[in-house]
Amino acid sequence: MDNHHPHRRLGALTANSHGQPPRPAVAGRRLGALVLAAAATLTFSAACTEDSEAPAGNAAAAAAGGPEPKTLEGAKVAAQTVFDRFSGGDFAGAWEMYTSSGKQAISKDDYVKLNTACSRKGLAIQLTSARMEGTDRAVVIAKQLVAAQSYTMVYEADAWRLEPAKEGLTLYKLGADKAIAAQKKAGTCAGG
């Protein structure tokens, strides 16, 4: 899924001489109709192609409940979804997208408790680059404010999953209460 959603005005507004509100220029409507027709044709063509890199294929696979595409684009879409869930405060949803080893390191309840207490909510995390590392691993770089960090996505059980870093796994194994205390002691708990 493309994270860029351009919303452009297709025609300039023109005021009429009768004091009525402005209306789109005729040329703008014609251009808009051509753009919409072209977009519909491209969307239809992309949906019918067998190119596994096509974002339309990602949406179709997700909508059908089938396996996610084992592609760099699929890894990027999944990574951005994890980042959006986390920055939006949906920690349970973010945990659902962890690898099996990540889920084994911390229960969903402890993960939610830890992040509710210590994470910076509301700050967008934006994917800036990605690359494949073999056929079932991707490394993605994400930025929050001015800090960038790399993350590993692993293709597991027909879906891309976030693999927690070794430091995260070590922290998670402490359990929520001890992990919160450790982060507070280190000054890394945003909640205090």
TrEMBL record:
Disordered as annotated region, ranges: 1-26
Compositionally biased tracts (Basic residues): 1-10
Domain of life: Bacteria
This protein's name: Lipoprotein
